[in-house]
Structures are given as structure tokens and as C-alpha cells.
């Protein structure tokens, strides 16, 4: 009989490795095949015994251990599952602690090994040298693992007030997720954003810095916007999350299109002639957080949102990132009197916007209509004192939610920004406010009324 045995006691981690035994033998007139659960390295043991009546005929007997289970050959299926789960847990634990494993292995192979080789005694110089090597490995590995294991992504939360108000926002990210955007301007260049611009995006005025860059986000008719030296058009919608989404097309030129579905009782809804064949268009979406993070090295002078009921959900999704990036001012589309044009919009000034914007560090500076007279401040909403009183009465006895058109522009100033001319008081003739004219009313660029264009020399000086 010839027998060859291969056995590895350990694999360096303190675990038993697989043992393999190959046996070749000659036997008489019997043939059998058995399978048992073996010990040691553990496993399924397969034995083949072949023979014939001829003593010159050779048969082979092969035993191979392959299973991770050991000891008891009568393991039940449940016990096998438990052992397998335990082994997986041990492996996960080791993966979570690669630094400790590496240091322990290095210690075993150097310090303990050197000590054993010297009869268990090491010189002080050797110990100091090896300790120094361990320290270097510790520092280098710790730095590498920190980079490898960093977690990113938003964690969403929502709060519903006792008055029915809804605030949806994300907590701070563990790391920054968006790289800086290069728009061909040096850091600190003024930037203005128009989210939902349709065919007439805002652009710099003659009195503004000629280097000011305007960014217009328009997913439906952006391709029809005429070129302008200060303007970049991004053919995408903006939302609380990036990816793609179905946008509902409403009104002429898609002017009332929204990521939210319209309430059909709204004045211009599907009952109207231009909406009876309303369609859905799949559009790319960019998260509002990504936009702010990628532009934080620029000076964001103002953000204008016209998102058809999706405004609050998007803006509030970034928490206080608006303040951290230093967005100076915002003009946001809001509803009031608990009237909504779109389903599940939660876009009310008193219920949603005022509590949220005040909590993160913005000051209310007035409310105007979005249609008709767009410059006159409304009574009860001319400044922060008036809106607090108006909203306090509203929240004390809120009316039932109604369907209709109640769209307004609300003006917000970062608290750290100086108060403009008029100070948001709005007590001038017919409630006109020079503060809005100075800080919020930018020029527009449309086919019928192109925006202001600076000289070629002025633009050349802006390039990096």
C-alpha cells in the first residue's frame, strides 16, 4: 500500500486549514463508496474502493476533506447553517478590523519570532527598531483606511408640526459629495441661479459686475433660450435628489410644468384647452445639494426658484447648507392661505417656508405676486414683523386646504448680509421697496427682450 498525506495545520490566522489525504491500495473482490463528515480540518470524506478477483488489479481509495465543519459527523442542517453564519461573522469582523489584524501579524512574525530565534531574549536596540517599524505601519495604514471607509450620502428626516406644517430636510453629509465646478471664472466670482427659468432666465444688469455668471436650469424648453455671454443653460430639473424623473407638462411652452402632478381643479389645469393633451417627459434631475457644493467656491448672490410647487421640498432638503455656502439671497415661489396648485406640494409660506428659513438663518423681506403687479409688496407681508403677525393668526386657526392658484414670490436675506435700502420695511409709495429693486430684481433675457451685454473687453478680463 502507498499513502501520500498533505496537511497544513494553520493558515496564519489561527484557523485550521484543509487537510487532504490521498491513499492508493489494492484489495480483493469488493467495491464500495461512502461519505462521512470528518474531523480535524473537517469535511466530507469520500472513499472509493475498487477491486476484482484478480490480485494484479489495482483499486484506488481516495479521501478528500473539503467542508468547513468538523468534529461531529452527525451535524444537522440547522447546525451547519449556524456554523456557516458564525464563520461569516468572523470573516466580517476581520474585514472590519484590518488594521488590528495587520499589526498583530507583523508582531507575530517579527517581535515574537525574533524573540524565539534568540532564545526568547531580545536586545533593547532590536525592540526599539521593531517598535518604530510598527508605528510607521500603524500611521500609514490608518490614513489609508480612513479614505477607504468614508461614508457619503444624505440621511433624510421629516418633521410635521402640530399645525400640520411639514419640513423635509436632510442631515449633514459625512463628507462632501460634489467636486468643484469650473465655469471659467476665478474663485469668488458672483453667480446667480434661476431654477425653472422657462424662456426668460435672469442675467446680470448694467450695474452688476461684468464677470457675474448666470446659471439657468430648464429641462423642457432650455434649447429655445437664446445664447448670452453671461448665461449657461443646464437642461435638467433640480430636485432633492439627483437622477431622472417624470415631469408633467402643463401650460403654453411648458411654463407650468412640474415634477408634481397638478390639482385638476386649478385654473389652468387639464380642464383648460392647452392642457387637455398634457404629457409626461422623462428629464434628468440634479440634486440641489450637488449644485450648492459644486459652486461653494463662488459668491452666490441670489437663487431664484420657480419650481411649480416643488420649491420647498427641494430647498429644505439641504438643511443649513445654504448658510454654510453663503447664499446671500433667495426668491422662492410660495403659496399662501393654504391654497395649493399641485398635489403633495407642501409649499405654504406660513406653514413651511417661514419656520424653516428663519430656523437656518434667513430674514423675510417681503412678498409679491408672480402675475400682474410683480413689484408691489402685499399688505401683511411687507416685512418680517408683519409676516410674523399674519402667520401667527393663520396658524392659530388655519383654513382647510383649498385647490387653486395662489403663487407668490417670497424674498429672503441671509441674516449676516447688511440690510438694503428700504430695509424690507416696504412703507414707500404703493408699497414699493427700493431694497427689492437693488438686490432681487435682475434683468431677464428673452427673444423679445434680450438681456444686457457687456463689452468684449470686460468679458476678457473675467477669464481665469
The computed structural class is: alpha/beta
Percent in strands: 15-25%
Please list the strands of the largest sheet in the order they lie side by side. Answer: 11-10-8-15-16-20-18
Please state the overall shape, judged from the principal axes of the Cα atoms.
Answer: globular
Helix content: 25-40%
Number of helices: 10
In whole angstroms, the N-to-C terminal distance is: 85 Å
Mean pLDDT across every amino acid position: 73
Flag low-confidence runs: 1-81, 145-174, 424-430
Which key features would you list for this structure?
seven-stranded mixed beta sheet; 464 residues; globular; 24% strand; three-stranded antiparallel beta sheet
In words, what does this structure look like?
This protein has helices at 77-96, 98-117, 124-148, 288-294, 311-315, 321-325, 349-360, 384-396, 434-439, 456-460; strands at residues 2-6, 20-25, 32-38, 43-49, 59-64, 155-160, 166-171, 190-195, 202-203, 213-217, 231-234, 237-239, 243-248, 280-287, 299-305, 329-334, 339-340, 362-369, 402-403, 408-414, 443-444. With 464 residues, the chain is α/β, with parallel strands linked by helices. The strands form seven sheets. The chain has a seven-stranded mixed sheet, with helices on one face. A three-stranded antiparallel sheet has the order 1-2-5, with no helix packed on it.
Amino acid at each position: 500500500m502507498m499513502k501520500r498525506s498533505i496537511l497544513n495545520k494553520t493558515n496564519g490566522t489561527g484557523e485550521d486549514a484543509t487537510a487532504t489525504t490521498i491513499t492508493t491500495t489494492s484489495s480483493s473482490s469488493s467495491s464500495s463508496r461512502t461519505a462521512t463528515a470528518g474531523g480535524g480540518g473537517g469535511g466530507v470524506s469520500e472513499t472509493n474502493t475498487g477491486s476484482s478477483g484478480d490480485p494484479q488489479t489495482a483499486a484506488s481509495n481516495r479521501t478528500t476533506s473539503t467542508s468547513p465543519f468538523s468534529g461531529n459527523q452527525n451535524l444537522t442542517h440547522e447546525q451547519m447553517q449556524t456554523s456557516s453564519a458564525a464563520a461569516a461573522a468572523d470573516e466580517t469582523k476581520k474585514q472590519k478590523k484590518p488594521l488590528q489584524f495587520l499589526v498583530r501579524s507583523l508582531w507575530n512574525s517579527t517581535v515574537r519570532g525574533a524573540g524565539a530565534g534568540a532564545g526568547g531574549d531580545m536586545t533593547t536596540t532590536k525592540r526599539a527598531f521593531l517598535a518604530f517599524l510598527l508605528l510607521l505601519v500603524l500611521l500609514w495604514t490608518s490614513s489609508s483606511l480612513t479614505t477607504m471607509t468614508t461614508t457619503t450620502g444624505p440621511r433624510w428626516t421629516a418633521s410635521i408640526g402640530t399645525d400640520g406644517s411639514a419640513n423635509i430636510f436632510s442631515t449633514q453629509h459625512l463628507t462632501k459629495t460634489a467636486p468643484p465646478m469650473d465655469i471659467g471664472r476665478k474663485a469668488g466670482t458672483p453667480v446667480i441661479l434661476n431654477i425653472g427659468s422657462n424662456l426668460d432666465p435672469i442675467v446680470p444688469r448694467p450695474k452688476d459686475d461684468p464677470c457675474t455668471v448666470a446659471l439657468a436650469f430648464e429641462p423642457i424648453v432650455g434649447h429655445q433660450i437664446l445664447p448670452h455671454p453671461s448665461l449657461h443653460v443646464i437642461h435638467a430639473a433640480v430636485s432633492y435628489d439627483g437622477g431622472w424623473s417624470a415631469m408633467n407638462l402643463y401650460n403654453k411652452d411648458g411654463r407650468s410644468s412640474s415634477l408634481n402632478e397638478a390639482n385638476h381643479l386649478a385654473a389652468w389645469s387639464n380642464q383648460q384647452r392647452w392642457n387637455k393633451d398634457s404629457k409626461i417627459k422623462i428629464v434628468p434631475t440634479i440634486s440641489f445639494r450637488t449644485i450648492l457644493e459644486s459652486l461653494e467656491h463662488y459668491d452666490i448672490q441670489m437663487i431664484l426658484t420657480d419650481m411649480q410647487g416643488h420649491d420647498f421640498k427641494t430647498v429644505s432638503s439641504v438643511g443649513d447648507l445654504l448658510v454654510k455656502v453663503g447664499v446671500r439671497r433667495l426668491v422662492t415661489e410660495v403659496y399662501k392661505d393654504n391654497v395649493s396648485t399641485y398635489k403633495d406640494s407642501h409649499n405654504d409660506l406660513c406653514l413651511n417656508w417661514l419656520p424653516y428659513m428663519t430656523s437656518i438663518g434667513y430674514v423675510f423681506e417681503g412678498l409679491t405676486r408672480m402675475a400682474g403687479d410683480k413689484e408691489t409688496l402685499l399688505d401683511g407681508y411687507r416685512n418680517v414683523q408683519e409676516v410674523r403677525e399674519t402667520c401667527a393668526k393663520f396658524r392659530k386657526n388655519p383654513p382647510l386646504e383649498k385647490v387653486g392658484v395662489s403663487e407668490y414670490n417670497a424674498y429672503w436675506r441671509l441674516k449676516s448680509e447688511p440690510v438694503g435700502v428700504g430695509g424690507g420695511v416696504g412703507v414707500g409709495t404703493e408699497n414699493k421697496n427700493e431694497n427689492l429693486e437693488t438686490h432681487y430684481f435682475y434683468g431677464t433675457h428673452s427673444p423679445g427682450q434680450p438681456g444686457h451685454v457687456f463689452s468684449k473687453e470686460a468679458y476678457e478680463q473675467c477669464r481665469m
